[in-house]
Amino acid sequence: MSIAEAHHAAEPGTSAPRRPLVPPSPPRAPDTMTALGRMTAMRKSAIATWGQRAYEEDVIQGSFFGRSSFILNTPDAIRHVLVDNYENYTRTPAGIRVLRPMLGEGLLTAEGRAWKYQRRTLAPAFTPRAVATLVPHMIAAIDETVATLREKGSAPVDLREVMQRMTLEIAGRTMFSLGMDRHGPTLRDFVVDYGERLARPHFLDLLLPLGWPSPQDFSRARFRRRWTRFIAMLMAERRAAGKKEGAPLRDLFDLMEAARDPETGESFSDEQLGDQVATMILAGHETTATALFWALYLLALDPVAQDELADEVQRVSADGALDIDRLKFTRAVIDETMRLYPPAFLIARAAAAPDTIAGLPVRKRDVILIAPWLLHRHEKLWHDPNAFIPSRFMSPSPPPDRFAYLPFGVGARVCIGAHFALVEATLALARLIGTFRVELLDKDPVMPIGVVTTQPDRSPMFTISPR
């Protein structure tokens, strides 16, 4: 089906209801796919390994290298794993192998007491009040991106790359009060190199115990050494820049360096601080860039929704300033984008001890899979689940079940930067669509693939024109 066939609007001058956009999505796997077939498909995209049953049934039990596996699609079961008994469910060995070289022992990968210490120490840096102090950094980078796009005129533009550069600039400024002109290309090279060579789990990554290095682990260790040297250099440069005596805290690095465990008064060591910096820069810029790309793609496919968003921006802007609390439709577009294309498409956990989930016995080391990609498109949980309908996140529609919509996870380990990311994405999308009309130059469908995040299979070209 072409994009044109996928979206039908009411004819001009008629009152026929507009059919919602159903964006392209990859074909579903045969439910009879073999374990070897799933392993092969997973190397390209985990999304391609799920069949129709996964979008219809509450719990799917299978096997995973001699252990039982469970895909959970019911809010009660998800609440049990991620909230009620979350300490019994840890990251899988394969997840640790993939994430640790980039994030070290930072908040995203830490477990147990180490995680609790980091979480309570970092929490004050991500309150709404703290994030508000970082908004000027965001606005400055967004406005510079808008100015650069104006200079391009009607030339074709790769908006995925533009969003990656913009969110990286925001990450650099909010973290270090430093522009990323000099270091941005090197950081992007690190991210791309790791994603292409080392982030996709191999067979032995899944099979071997965590204490036994796989062949990929040796390459990841070499990457880790280069990466930590680069992060240490960024921290040294930020410290050398200093700040004025008595000046207020001005960026995330200040906030994290000044952070103290409220129970012990302990601060982060340099190594721990480096892992937090890496986690915040990577998790922050890459996931937000991806969400913004998908939002722009959806709005290019749905010009009626795009015009509605632009009208809202015009209506609520005061002297050119954006009032984020009044950008209701813009925020709904972001929410609906993350429903259809959740940045983290899969949450994988391993049981540390026996348990019971949805009446089913779970043994130690069994694998629990909670897939926002499936959950957000599940036919029992959503009306018209594959359609782009931002109004489902606006009054008078009831809010979705808290355990059926997980763009940032849920429970104790909910993403600490969720508010930061939502503010950044809402402001950026409002400014971009309020300034430009965005159209797709490339009419071929763009397919989502699941590799660490929900990425497009390619970067289509867009055209932009001033409103």
TrEMBL record:
Q: Does the keyword Hydrolase apply?
A: no
Tell me the domain of life.
Bacteria
Q: Where is this region: Disordered?
A: 1-31
For whether the record's keyword set contains Iron, the answer is yes
Q: Which residues bind heme?
A: 415
Q: Identify the SUPFAM superfamilies for this entry.
A: Cytochrome P450 (SSF48264)
Q: Where is the composition biased (Basic and acidic residues)?
A: 1-10
Q: Which UniProt keywords apply?
A: Heme, Iron, Metal-binding, Monooxygenase, Oxidoreductase
Q: One MF term in GO for this entry?
A: oxidoreductase activity, acting on paired donors, with incorporation or reduction of molecular oxygen
Q: Which Pfam families match?
A: p450
As cofactor, the record names:
heme
Pro residues bias locations: 20-29
Family named by the database record: Belongs to the cytochrome P450 family.
Q: What is this protein called?
A: Cytochrome P450
